[in-house]
Amino acid sequence: MNAAATPRRIGPFEVSPIGLGCMNLNHAYGQPPSPEAAERLLLTALEDGVTLFDTAALYGFGANETLVGRVLQPHRARIVLCSKGGMTGQPVPGSAPGAALQRVIDGRPQAIRRDCEDSLRRLRTDVIDLYYLHRWDKRVPIEESVGAMARLKEEGKLRALGLSEVSAETLRKAQREHPIAAVQSEYSPWSRNVEIGVLQACRDIGAALVAFSPVARGFLTAMPPDPATFDAKDIRRTMPRFEPAAYVANLALWRGVQALAERAGCTPAQLSLAWLLARGEHVVPIPGTTQLAHLRENLQAANMSLAGDIAEALEDLMREGRVLGGRYNAVSQGEVDTEQF
User: Is there a catalytic annotation at residue 59?
Assistant: First the structure.
């Protein structure tokens, strides 16, 4: 990414048009890179112009925040640091000290305060620039969770508030409690649920739409993954789109994407990222990677513009109903608040 790439705005911040999702340096896709390789990737992203770095208390049950804090604290003034609370690793009730943690969604004000203060400590900072409610805890009114975040902002521990994986209706309720700077949700040519309502709702209230998994969890790349090789802890093992029958059908779509990328003179990942950037000036993709070559490939998309016919062909290829399988299994889908086609 070079100086020609036009910055984007998230709340009070001007950020690089493509950020870095840090999750897979410690979490979700099997064996993570070595600490040395992860540090090298973070510093290379910084050197190549990335100013938006995204992590969460959940990722590696704190390990990702610890990594990001250790590596980027000396460069704190140069970056917009984002994290999330309300979904963390917590001890199983009654378990012995040091026992394995379990993922818990907890949006109560006391839990949000605990999560925020833990994140500040791990990130080695006095303030988090953009703090998201990672999941809306449906047992707690959204206004209560956002109100707790607003109080942390009043205390100087947060600079701006965000939500993750919420509907337009929930966003508007939250906005009435406190201005929301960003909504983070999955968005790519093969995951377009935000187009039902939340993409426009973000535009209406002046919030950014921060797109995670913008290259479809590795599917929209030059070499889509083989689900048979997934690590036992790879979260894609539970996702219907990666189940054998669905995946074979979806590979036919990938071949169409590859052909469009060749027409555009780019890679499938660059095609997906450039398409997202063209969806609105308030859209900010945050691809994650463990590979320096893929990092640089992704960042080059900020300098691309897609011909209208290619963008339209991509949208038609991946229109509603063409992608086989849901984003999440039934349990995980029940934990999010997004609209569904």
Answer: yes
